[in-house]
Amino acid sequence: MNRRTFVKSSLGIAILASQLPYANTEEEKKMNIVVAADPFAVELKDAIKEHLEKKGYAVSDVGATKESEIPYYDAAPAAAALIQSGKAKRGILFCGTGAGMCIVANKFNGVQAVCVESVFAAKMARAINDANVITMGAMIVAPWMAKAMVDAWLDTKHTEGLEEFADFLKDACCKVNAMDTGR
Fold first, then answer.
1. In this predicted structure, what is the pLDDT of residue 27?
2. Among 20, 106, 139, 156, which residue has the least CB neighbours within 10 Å?
3. What integer is the mean pLDDT of 170-183?
């Protein structure tokens, strides 16, 4: 694989968030997305939860609320359990930096979490890594940017825009997923 070609190809698929479509298939609209936050990120989680519900997604909230504090190391396993059981197809987790949620979520079989800080990173988390969970930090990402990141991630398919590398990317994901040793 030519790394320069890969980088040029991946850079070519960056698009403006305003160009992203809403969920348009019935399957996408019925997709359950689990969200969770620790106390540092409740406001960001609530903004994303409202955004998702307005777009027609079902949302399960297993994290902290304004009334109930849940630390990241308890919220991430609750979200991971819903993904493992098939009750949620994707997850969006929030803490101060996004790192803690990402570390914990990745300890569970079937969870491929990526901490994202930009629309491009969110899109690449799906296109390259087929991530079913993204995490982000309330100390880093503003709500308007988080909405654009979530839209990019939800609207991107694995290998989209990187068809030249599809076989490699699919094989890589299979090999990485085979390394799962968590609960």
1. 55
2. 139
3. 76
Question: How far is residue 13's CA from residue 7's CA, in Å, rounded to a whole number?
Answer: 10
Find the range with the poorest average confidence among 35-39, 59-63, 160-164: 160-164
| Cα 104–chain centre separation | 14
Cα–Cα distance measured from residue 116 to residue 101, given in angstroms and rounded to the nearest whole number: 12
CATH of the domain at 50: 3.40.1400.10
Tell me: pLDDT of 4 over 70.
no
Cα 40–chain centre separation: 18
DSSP E strands in 101-145: the ranges are 113-115, 133-137
- Residue 20 domain-assigned (yes or no): no
Give the single-character DSSP code of 2.
-
Give the residue numbers marked as catalytic.
Answer: 95
Task: For the chain, give the longest Cα–Cα distance.
Answer: 52
Contact 93, 37 (CB under 8 A): yes
In the numeric block, the tokens 């799906």 are attached to 126
Structural domain span for residue 146: 26-176
Say yes or no to pLDDT of 11 above 50: no
Residue 149 in domain: yes
Residue 124 lies in a domain: yes
Q: What is the dihedral of CA 2, 4, 6, 11, to 10 degrees?
A: -170
- Domain count along the chain: 1
- In the chain, % of residues over pLDDT 90: 69
Distance CA 174, CA 103 (A): 20
